[in-house]
Amino acid sequence: MKVTDVTVLAALAHPIRTSILHLLLTVGEQTATQCSEVVDATPSACSYHLRHLERFGLVERVDQDGRAGADGRTKVWRAVATGFDFGEPAGSPEFVAASSALVSVGLDENLRLARHYLSHLDLLPDEWHRAASFSTYALLVNPDELRSVLEAIDAIVRPLRAAVRVDAPDDARSVRLSVDAFARTDLP
Q1: Which residue intervals of the chain are DSSP H helices?
Q2: Among 22, 67, 69, 129, which one is most buried in terms of CB atoms within 10 A?
Q3: Domain ranges, ordered by start, for the chain
């Protein structure tokens, strides 16, 4: 789902909202209480942010009619799409500001999750330690080459996204993959 509305980008540029949306895209339907256990916020805060995301068309309540154990008070939420494209920080000054704020919150979320992983290594078998990577590459490319690299990476990882994968092996786990590619502005 492509999102180009500046007000939606600005609304999502909040750490808890970004964390909740990423969680729903990763694990599927969740209640505010379930979200709170992962995103480090209270259930009432998560409920508030879920309603805010709903107002902007990013999440929706799941119809619980006929579901076992549905009591009408517990609300289950899901993302309205299997992925979101928020564009790049280019265009009007308002769009650039909102998009940059959202990217910044996303970078903070990646760092939060990486630190959580590092502080909980004891919960994972060694094979997951060996499979993880925190690699950085200093490339020398032009814009067309960079786009080609990113398109190739996207072609490999897109079918493996948790929200759409139906053929995952039994020992599969949710994995966070972040690709940051940008020109160095601190160098001539």
Answers
A1: 6-12, 15-27, 32-39, 43-55, 93-119, 126-131, 143-157
A2: 22
A3: 6-134
